[in-house]
Write a structure and sequence with these properties.
It is built from 5 helices and 10 strands.
């Protein structure tokens, strides 16, 4: 996918397979090592130098061909809902800044981010998906969004997309039922999502009170 997007002219961080570790220059560090397939930030590790990368690869049970190594970017991260129909029409793009993550986003906010939205539209044209797509990007020092992942599914922040008045579930269900569905050009910006777990304990006799 990285090669496909790069060939199409999309912006991405420098990326290698872990099996190509010896080719990576020292000045490129720090790097991010992550599985080629996965979710929820599982198996993602930052390495600061060549020695740390070698140590990580020696400890992991994964084959180096199954790991990506990417240049580390320290800018704001965006997770964007890109809504496409069965026949490849784009219905909506909603950029969301992932302010805090714990595997999935726990604090996020919709943003007016034209560069992110334009980049996601370009990726949609390149990949020609049929259905929901989640594009994850990090802004570099010049504010250019660099694509780090594309997930062929609903985002874990799709509930925030809905709260911003783009109900991608409703849109795609109606599209699947062969109803006429129009693109949604507007969404509510600066709407926050705060996600947390809460545990409540009670005895049986107190549950009804």
């Amino acid at each position: 996918m990285h090669q496909w997007l790069a060939d199409a002219g999309d912006d991405l961080p420098a990326t290698w397979l872990a099996s190509e570790a010896e080719r990576i220059d020292e000045e490129v560090y720090p790097l991010i090592v992550k599985p080629r397939r996965g979710r929820g930030s599982r198996g993602v590790q930052r390495v600061d130098d060549k020695s740390s990368l070698h140590d990580h690869l020696a400890r992991t049970e994964r084959n180096p061909e199954d790991l990506l190594v990417q240049a580390y970017l320290d800018g704001p991260e965006f997770t964007t809902s890109v809504v496409g129909t069965r026949d490849g029409r784009l219905l909506g793009v909603v950029p969301k800044e992932a302010i805090e993550k714990d595997g999935s986003t726990v604090l996020g906010v919709t943003r007016r981010a034209p560069a992110v939205a334009d980049s996601c539209r370009s990726i949609f044209d390149t990949l020609d998906p049929k259905g929901p797509v989640n594009v994850q990007q990090v802004l570099d020092a010049e504010g250019i969004p660099k694509t780090i992942e594309v997930n062929p599914r609903f985002s874990s922040t799709s509930c925030l997309t809905v709260a911003a008045d783009v109900n991608e579930f409703d849109l795609l269900v109606r599209d699947a039922l062969h109803e006429t569905v129009a693109p949604v050009d507007r969404y509510v910006a600066d709407r926050y999502m705060i996600r947390y777990d809460d545990h409540i304990f009670a005895d049986d006799l107190n549950l009804g009170k």
